[in-house]
Specification:
With 282 residues, the protein is mainly alpha-helical. The chain contains 12 helices and no strands. The longest helix has 35 residues. The protein binds fe (ii) ion (2 copies).
């Protein structure tokens, strides 16, 4: 089930309206002359490597979106129009994620985390060539998954940034978390539109969202070499990052919606109450 294009369009436009002004320069926007790698801990180096892989998988994420929201192969003209409109978001979002990947790679090289461009490139491409699937094809589920992913990265970058004393990485994490916050906000608006416009949200939309929340796992968790060990180490670098925090934020966002719309009050609260106890969200 797709959103009506008339509902989707203002959300995409408002994302791009802010996005057009929210640019930062990956080459000149960071104080590279102040780079001081000796301030990096071993764990922080590992965290940079880990998030580089996650960001660098953009071609896989982008391809998945292109496959799920085709234009040439759309079933109907309406669907093609919808997907064309969504593409205005996808392409900007993809550009920003690719920028994240490139700047993190540059950081690895300049700071000496991996000084050899050739070694780094081969390492990155090896992960890049592993196939990726969101695991859902219903648009509202695809968007819920990405929403959680955006929130997770935003919160992780913030938490890591609080510990980092190396000035270039500190500034970079700040840029990244602001971009991820904008991405999160876009998906939030999409989800709200799905729930608000559904005829019977309790049947059509809420159970689908719930399904994603309970099964959520970070991308690449099943493909990245040595994922578990890397994930544990990166979590250690940002001790105030809570793994369930993205789900908790989504729960609170749904509850806010329940307050705003009388009709949605009961079905949403029924669902979020269960979510709070199952995920131990306070
Ligand atoms: Fe990113
Ligand atoms: Fe993002």
């Amino acid at each position: 089930m797709h959103l009506q294009t008339s509902v989707l369009r203002p959300i995409v436009s408002s994302f791009n309206l802010i996005g057009d002004d929210a640019n930062w320069n990956r080459f000149t926007g960071l104080p590279w002359d102040q780079l001081n790698p000796s301030l990096l801990t071993e764990g922080q180096r590992g965290a940079v490597v880990f998030v580089s892989y996650v960001e660098d998988h953009l071609p896989g994420y982008f391809h998945e979106y292109q496959t799920l929201f085709p234009i040439e192969d759309a079933q109907t003209t309406e669907e093609a129009i919808h997907n064309r409109e969504l593409f205005r978001f996808i392409v900007r979002w993809g550009f920003e994620e690719d920028k994240h990947a490139q700047v993190l790679t540059m950081y690895q090289l300049k700071s000496g985390i991996e000084p050899s461009e050739e070694v780094l490139e081969r390492r990155m491409i090896e992960e890049n060539r592993k196939s990726f699937s969101i695991g859902f094809s219903e648009p509202v589920q695809v968007f819920t998954y990405t929403l959680l992913q955006e929130k997770a990265t935003q919160m992780y970058y913030q938490a890591l940034g609080r510990r980092v004393t190396e000035p270039v990485l500190g500034k970079l994490l700040n840029y990244l978390s602001k971009d991820e916050a904008r991405h999160y906000s876009f998906f939030c608006q999409l989800l709200e539109a799905f729930v608000r416009t559904a005829e019977d949200p309790e049947k059509e939309v809420l159970p689908m969202i719930e399904d994603v929340i309970y099964s959520y796992k970070m991308p690449l968790h099943n493909t990245m070499t040595d994922y578990r060990r890397k994930a544990i180490l990166m979590a250690r670098e940002a001790p105030d990052y809570d793994r369930n925090a993205p789900q908790a934020v989504l729960t609170a966002m749904l509850e806010k919606m329940a307050q705003k719309h009388e009709r949605l009050n009961r079905p949403i609260l029924k669902m979020t109450e269960k979510m709070r106890s199952r995920l131990s969200v306070r």
